[in-house]
Each structure stands twice: as structure tokens, then as C-alpha cells.
Amino acid sequence: MLQFPKIGQVYPEKRTADERAHDFDEISRVYALAKAEEQSSRCSQCGVPYCTTHCPLHNHIPDWLRLTAEGRLREAYELSNATSTMPEICGRICPQDRLCEGNCVIEFSGHGAVTIGSVEKFITDTAWEEGWVEPLTPGPARGQSIGIIGAGPAGLTVADLMRARGYEVHVYDRHDRAGGLLTYGIPGFKLEKPIVMRRVDRLAAGGVVFHQDFEVGRDASLAELRAKHDAVVIATGVYKARAIKAPGVGADGVVEALDYLTASNRKGFGDAVPAFDAGALDAAGKNVVVIGGGDTAMDCVRTAIRQGASSVRCLYRRDRANMPGSQREVKNAEEEGVEFVWLAGPEAFHDTDGTVSGVQVAKMRLGQPDASGRRAPEADPGAEYRIEADLVIKALGFDPEELPRLFGAQELAVTRWGTIRIDHKTMMTSVDGVFAAGDIVRGASLVVWAVRDGRDLADRMHAWLKERAPAVPAGALVSA
To answer: Which one-letter DSSP state was computed for residue 30?
Structure first.
């Protein structure tokens, strides 16, 4: 260990921008074993590891880096897997530059952070290849069942941990494949879909029952699910797109980011997608404008490049230093040909015969800090201009849907933001026996936080269910 003064920071080699802009494969090549061991050996083995404290899962990062450096990959995987239900997914899509790597002590010293995410991805991919990932083995049957609404990272984490404890687990999801945004929101160049599907397949093989194309409120009410199961989990995420109030926003060709990304991912699965096939959700040959500065906007601009757009511009109302998306993603997008237009906000949308033809842009400037402490953008009068556009993608973030109304459960309490209100000690909602976790509680956030919330909820719900467990016959075995 402690090799950082001698060995420089090296990330896995990226394919050239021209090569990767023509497919949806992941952009980085994999580490060779020697390189992963070498990069792991740069860790300084801090007495107070900031990488661990800034990881929502509090992964044992220095420990599995040391094991990797020593060539003990199976032990490294087992330690990584002890705190995370999907380490290879987090290794791919976590914003490490803002979390573990951004708080690496040797990064502060000017030597460049340990490449934690790339090593995490490497050791878990190796575990899958070598057969070290064990099947999900249910514990002794408890005679209790849980229903989970939503098959995203929070719901899948709860399903994994509760099935291992011996509960009967049913997952209800509106889509025809499990995974939520992992499957339909995040493009393949960041997260190839077989990576997600093998996690889902592992759960199904372990006895988790998936109910696809199932909408709570249409196929069953929350009360009906509550009557069917001993406990219910709401892990729907947040899917309601934030709106833009501007003239012309209803023109054809002004689309929602999630509709656009879902269509692209479905095509990757080989599905029939009429709106894509008709051209409405296909960027090929078009001048594309994406509005927003978060990770979803980055996914959209890089998807448009791969679909063969004539030009791709990203409008963001603040400057580069104040954007919420990953700076690594911005760099990747720029390499692939995306043009970023900073301090720019849409003022109106022009159309020709009802189809968008351009965006009227207001030049912005940063004013006084707002309630969040960030300098608020404000329009610079008289500095408007037009950008040609054949396809405009709105990527302004997501809010919760009106779940009390959709679920037929007006007794389900929500916050003023529309997120589900829970008792944070028990993670239970206002409805007895109904728990909630993930974005539907904390608002739009990171996958790693959804995994953390799912892990916490499984512990709290397990404790609650044990107090209400049916009587156990003498001599029967029940796991703790």
C-alpha cells in the first residue's frame, strides 16, 4: 500500500469518442488484473477514511482495496458485497467524483484519488465471471409475506434482503421488466442492461415473485395489497416530469426526457416502439436541444449523439461550475461532440405547422444566492437569441406522483413536496404496516441512496414483522 507517490492515477482506458459515439456499449475498457491491483495499492489506508464516511453505504473501501492489491479478489468481493446489494452497478453509475473519490485523502494532497469506482466494478464483474456470486438462498420460511411496489434499486434491495431472511416476497411494477430507472432510464453506455438483468434473474431464481405490468390503483388498491401481505413497501421512485412554462411548449417535438430515454432503451432490448419508429423519439438527422444540467440531461445529449443527431446542444441556466450533473459526464459529452450553452434558459418555443422549429433563448446571469445558497439565475434583458431545433428534450428533473390519489389511499400522508411522509425511526408511513424508501421519500436522488434506504428499511421492517410473527411450532428453525 501507500504507493501513491510512485504510481499515478490511471482510470480504465476509454474507447475513442468516434468509436463509442456509434454504439450503446459502455465507454471504458476493463482493467487488467495487474492494473487493478496497482491502482488499489495507491490507497493510503487512512486512519479516518473519508471515502467510507462519504459513501452512503459506508462501504469498507480501504479494506477491499487492500485485499485487491494483495490479489485476494474473492475476499475483496465478499467484503464489498457485505454492504451493497449491487456493487457493480454503483461502481458504474455513482458520481464518485462527488462521493468517495472526491473525498479521498490523497486527492487532497494533489496525487489524484484512488480509482475506487473502477476497482469496485472490476472486482464484482470478476466475481460474476468466476462464479463467486452466490445464488439467493432463502432462510427458513417465516409464514409472512411482503409486497413491494416498485422494482427499482430500493425495491430490489428490500426484496433481496427480506427473501434471504425467509419472507415470501412479491414485487409489483408498472413496467414489463424489473429494474426501474436502471433498466429504462439509464442508457447502456453507462450501464449495460445484462448487468441489471442478471441481478433481477438472481432474485427470481431465489423465489422473489415479480408481477410485471401491474399498476397499484388500476390492478389493486393499496388497501387490497395491505390485506394480502403482512407488510407493504412503497418504493416507486419519482417519475412526474417537471414542467416548463413558456409559449409553444406544447408543440410536437418537445418531449419529456424519460419518454425519450425509455424509448431508446426499449429499442436496445429489441422492443417495438411506435413513437421511436415514427421518428418522434428518434434524434437521427435532427438538431437536438436538451434543457437541463443534471445527469438525466447528460444521458439525453449522449443518447442523441449515438442516434445520429445532426447537432446536439445542452442549455443550462447556470454556469459550468454550478451545474448539478457529473463533471465527468460533461467531459465525456464534450468529447463526443455535444455543445454546452451555459447561462441560457428557454424563453419560448417556435414551431412550423405545430412542430417545433427553434428555441428562443434568454441569456442568463447569476444574481444573489437563493434559499439553497446557490446564486440564482436571472434573465439578462435584451440578450435573447434563437437556436434551431427539430427535437427539444426537457430534462428538468422529477417530482413525486400523487400517490394517495393513484393508490386510492387518501390516508397516506405526504409532505408539502408530495413525497411520502414516514417515521424515520421505523420508516413506516401513516398507514400501519406500510413502509417507504428511496426517491419517493427523499426526492430525486442517487441510486446509491436508494440502495442505502432499501437496506435500512429491510432492517426496520424485519424487526417490526418479528414482533407480529405467527407462533412457531416446537423444534422449528427460524433465522434471526
So the answer is: P
